[in-house]
Amino acid sequence: MFTVLKTKLNYLSFVMTYFFYYFSFAIFSCLIAVYLLDKGFSPAETSLVVSSSFLSSMIAQPIIGSLSDRYSLKRVNQAVFLLACFGGIYFAYASSLIACIIGYSFVLALINGSNPILEKLATLSPYKYGAIRVWGTIGYAVGSQAAGIIYAFIAPQAIFFTFVLTLVLAMVGLYFAKPDMKKQQLLQKAKNKQQHTKQKTHLFSLFKNHLFVQYLLIAGVFFSLINIANTYIPAMFQAEGLKLTVVSNILFWAVLCEVPVVFFSYLFMDRLSNKILLIIPTLIVLAQFFSFGFNLWLPIQVFWTLFAKHPASMIFVMMNLKIVATLIPEDQQISALALIQTIRNLASMLAQSLFGWLLEKSGYHQMFLIAFGLIACVLLALIFYRIPKSPKQKIFS
Fold it and tell me: What is the C-alpha separation between 58 and 42, in angstroms, rounded?
């Protein structure tokens, strides 16, 4: 009986960690474009704030990944969460453009930096990946809804104090969460083997893997376009006449559409080939950008937002884990995941600058037409990408 209770409490700790981490992530970032535009910043200045966060994340993520490879995953991320709380308080009082850039960049560098480590931690838990990660999806959905309610009915600034509170709760959950001992021992064995043979597995050695480098380029373009959509979809729907509360509801249901993808990931992620699992979300995003770019009937745009905004990107996030497991030795996998995030943020930083300028010059629909052309290029690259079918071990079952 004691063992059963201990197992339930451990599961509750993982639930608490993932629910409140993704809740805090959503509430801090999902309405950032609306928040900055309402404060009087231009679209170009808004893009500058967001793109600066990608630059800071690009710098921070390899460092956080490397520290997590060397030391305790939990302790490193608890320290990261604590620093992010201080950053959230600072950003709540930021009023100038420079202050907003500093505050937002600092917080997002830490939150984005911890993201691949938490994805890895979900695979090290005693439970199925989907049974843990689904709570992150639910947390993000609730956070998106809460952001709209707090913004509209309390005060815009209050969303950042809520961010701090929920991130503290995530820290508490992480402190009590205990990974599966066998999985942890396998990871530690790989690290010890690397140290024993004195092989240099520093970050730059990952660039010798040509298939991994190709994936970095593909993932960089894909995620940069997803980030553009995530930044501007709320403002675009507002510009088309929807109220902020309606937009928040759309974002809420868009995240909930991710739940079956995550929860039932064990049914398809280990069974379908890597290439198929990369092509499917790319096709979905292609359809989404087509509906935005050609300004189709608004309900069609909302439909593709529900179907593509989170489910498609979540499949690609899970594919990061699978591709890294396929191509990278176990002792370097966290560093590889951090490198993917770094390239993702570098590409997103460049894309935010370019698309912010395009938005000011042309408008939302012309901007998404360009995004449609770029995602079509990603699809073409994937067709010719010679990736092995799957890793040796199952990750999601």
Answer: 25
The CATH code belonging to domain 7-181+200-383 is 1.20.1250.20
Q: CB under 8 Å to 274, separation ≥6 — which residues?
A: 319, 322, 323, 326, 387, 388, 389, 390
**Which tens digits make up the pLDDT trace of 97-123?**
999 999 999 999 999 888 878 877 887
- Count of CB atoms within 10 A of residue 380's CB? 11
Q: Residue 199: pLDDT above 80? A: no
CA distances from 222 to 82, 208, 283, 330, 386 (A): 31, 22, 11, 25, 18
Averaged pLDDT for residues 248-253: 84
Rounded-to-integer distance, Cα 67 and Cα 111, Å: 15
Assess contact for 179 and 124: CB atoms under 8 A: yes
Q: How far apart are CA 373 and CA 225, in angstroms?
A: 11
Average pLDDT, the chain: 84
Tell me how crowded residue 298 is: count the other CB atoms within 10 A of its CB.
13
Give me the residue spans of the domains in the chain: 7-181+200-383
pLDDT higher than threshold 80 for residue 193: no
Angle between helices 311-327 and 274-293 (to 10 degrees): 150
**CB-based contact 396:128 (threshold 8 Å):** yes
53: pLDDT strictly greater than 80:
yes
**Amino acid residing at 218:** I
For residue 160, the model assigns a pLDDT of 94
Structure tokens at 58: 């690009």
Rounded CA separation 96/39 (Å): 10
